[in-house]
Design goal:
- This protein is 95% helix and 0% strand.
- It has 141 residues and is mostly helical.
- The termini are far apart.
Length: 141
């Protein structure tokens, strides 16, 4: 019995103790690895949450910039349209004035020609000018 205890029991006991210690170490290592994995999972979840918040902020900023740009474009278009409208009105007034002036000149020329034929050259050049000026005044009134 003593020999079995000395040669078999001692090595078997040592082997069992080493195995028990290895199992304890493995369990501690597994618990440590599990905690590391949980920590890593929490960090990844936080990073994902931050990424979602950042993406939402980027979209919000993009929408805001688009609205600002749209408002600026509309304001510029309205300003340009008003400017074009004003220039068109000025051009129309100028064209009307020029047309009236040309018509007055033509009417004066025609009136002088008619008056010359009717009066058969009895009027002097000065009298003709007076008649034309009176006629033009009558057109203006």
């Amino acid at each position: 019995m003593l020999l079995v205890k000395h040669y078999a029991w001692g090595p078997v006991s040592d082997m069992m103790e080493k195995r028990r210690q290895k199992i304890i170490d493995d369990l501690d290592s597994a618990a440590s690895d599990r905690k590391k994995a949980e920590t890593l999972a929490n960090e990844r979840e936080a990073a994902l949450k931050d990424s979602r918040q950042e993406a939402t902020k980027i979209l919000s900023d993009a929408k805001e910039n688009a609205q600002k740009t749209s408002s600026e474009i509309v304001a510029n278009a309205n300003t340009d349209a008003a400017s074009i409208r004003k220039k068109a009105e000025e051009d129309a007034k100028k064209a009307k004035t020029e047309a009236l002036d040309a018509a007055r000149d033509q009417v004066a020329d025609i009136s002088v020609a008619i008056a010359e034929k009717i009066i058969a050259k009895n009027l002097s050049a000065e009298d003709q000018k007076d008649l034309v000026n009176q006629f033009i005044k009558g057109l203006n009134d």
